[in-house]
Design goal:
This protein has about 210 residues and is α/β, with parallel strands linked by helices. The chain has one domain: Vaccinia Virus protein VP39 (Rossmann fold), CATH 3.40.50.150. The protein is about 35% helix and about 35% strand. It is built from six helices and nine strands, in the order ααβαβαββαβββαββ. β4, α5 and β5 form a beta-alpha-beta unit. The longest helix is centred in the first third of the chain and has 17 residues.
Amino acid sequence: MDRSRKAVKDIYDRIAAHFSKTREYAWPEVASFLDAQPPAETALDIGCGNGRHTELLAEKATRAIGLDASIGLLGEARARATDRGFDAAFVAGDAASLPFAANSIDLALYVATLHHLPERSLRRASLDELARVLEPEARALVSVWSTAHDAFDHDGPEGFDTLVDWTLPGGETVPRFYHIYAPAEFDADFAASDLRVVSNELSSGNCYTVVTPE
């Protein structure tokens, strides 16, 4: 199992065009979270992929930013913004070392990305980075795949590492690294971070946690 961040980036660069075609619509949990938030000045989508959730941020904020490690996915996001006529900046960056000033983000999404970081120390560092860039009263939604999903048969307080295949047109499979979080483990990582949990829920096998800086 190649656990490196470069391997994850290279895989998403490789599958970007096909992946984007299957990610047309925003998740309802993300839309519900944003509907409950006040308008923002600067909003950030960490692990923006093809920009489907950045599009919602662009409706909510004066300035929307999508960040991703995959150059291929950033290209898909820019194409989506052009096609749909929404205004957002898309930048390449590392979720564990965000290229933004402290207290500069008023609203954030960190959806289905944290679980791609291959080490727990990196995942915790990325949560602290989220806390660093958030304005003191800002809210963020963080989501990961969890062991509560029907696809997994796993008990216990800790999650596990695995590879999840992506099937390209023609049948070729490309393995993607995931850390599947146990809900208790997800809670523990927040407790060890500079973030404070506002609320959490399980939905469709995913953990969703709303946070604010401590």
